[in-house]
C-alpha cells in the first residue's frame, strides 16, 4: 500500500496541527518529545514497546484530544525521542471510527466515533 499521511490536530494544554504517518502496525499514537513539550502534555510512567526495528524501549505516555477528518476523540499518546515522526496508531483510528482504504490511499469512515461514558 505504501505510506499515507493525514493532517491531525493534537490538543493537550495547547494544540498543534501536524502531518502524521498513518501506521496501522502501531497500537498507539506517537509524538516526538519536543511536540509533547510544546503541547504541554502531562506525561506519566512508561510503557515497554517494541519498535519497528525490533528494539524494546520504555516510552512515557499521556492522553490528548486527537482530531482527524473533523472527528475528535481522546487518545493514548506515547512520547518518543526527538527525531521520531508523528504516528497515528490503530487504537486512535479505531476510536475515531476510521480505517485505511488501501485502494484510494485515504481514510474511510467505518462507524460513528462514539465515546461511551460510565
Q: What does this protein structure show overall?
A:
- The chain is 11% helix and 52% strand.
- It has helices at 33-38, 90-96, and strands spanning 5-11, 15-23, 29-32, 44-50, 56-68, 71-80, 87-89, 98-101, 106-109.
- The termini are far apart.
- The protein has a single domain (5-109), classed as Acid Proteases (Cathepsin D, subunit A, domain 1, Beta Barrel), CATH 2.40.70.
- The chain has two helices and nine strands.
- The chain is globular.
- With 118 residues, it is mainly β.
- The longest helix has 7 residues, at 90-96.
- Strand 4 and strand 5 (56-68) form a beta hairpin.
- Strands 1, 2, 3, 4, 5, 6 and 7 form a seven-stranded mixed beta sheet that branches.
Give me the secondary-structure topology.
Elements: E1 5-11, E2 15-23, E3 29-32, H1 33-38, E4 44-50, E5 56-68, E6 71-80, E7 87-89, H2 90-96, E8 98-101, E9 106-109
Parallel strand pairs: 2-7, 3-6
Antiparallel strand pairs: 1-2, 1-5, 4-5, 5-6, 8-9
Mean pLDDT: 90
State the end-to-end distance: 39 Å
Low-confidence stretches: none
CATH class descriptor: Mainly Beta
Strand content: over 45%
Major pleated sheet: 7 strands, mixed
Residues in helix, % = 10-25%
What is the second-level CATH architecture? Beta Barrel
CATH topology: Cathepsin D, subunit A, domain 1
Structural class given helices, strands, pairing?
mainly beta
**What's the number of extended β-strand segments?**
9
Tally of DSSP helical segments: 2
The global form is globular
